[in-house]
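Field guide to reading this record: the first block holds the primary sequence, the second block holds the structure written as discrete tokens, and the final block holds curator observations. Each block starts with its own label. This record concerns Carotene hydroxylase, catalogued under organism Flavobacterium plantiphilum.

BLOCK 1 — SEQUENCE
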Amino acid sequence: MIYFLITIAIFLLMECVTWLTHKYIMHGLMWYFHEDHHQPKYEHVFERNDIFFVIFAIPSIVLFYYGVEGGINYLFFIGLGITLYGICYFLIHDVLIHQRFKWFRNTKNKYLIGLRKAHKVHHKHLGKEDGECFGMLFVPFKYYKM
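BLOCK 2 — STRUCTURE
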């Protein structure tokens, strides 16, 4: 039971990490990598912004490695929480919102529509300043109203 709670807690904590990273790292120090993501059209299959998938995967990989050494321990479940959040992030951000894969094109789910609206508000700013809606899975309730 404790491992399940660790996984859920880390999953939820990752939304805070994502918000802080997106606002202060992606729109700050590492804007060079994130900038192409704010352009209206993608020129290539991959964008520089995709480096963040690798950056976020590294801690998960390390935690999985040390989490199975000598038997499964709590580190494995911290890595699992990060990985599950990464999967959700990918499905919401790259599949639902940016349609890099054409899987959930015509959703009528109010939650998913709200996420899409909030992200569009975030992307109306092409520069790194004046951003809003830096979260991914939890956005202000005003975006869920139809």
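BLOCK 3 — OBSERVATIONS
The helical segments are 2-29, 31-34, 51-68, 74-97, 110-123.
DSSP finds five helices and no strands in the chain.
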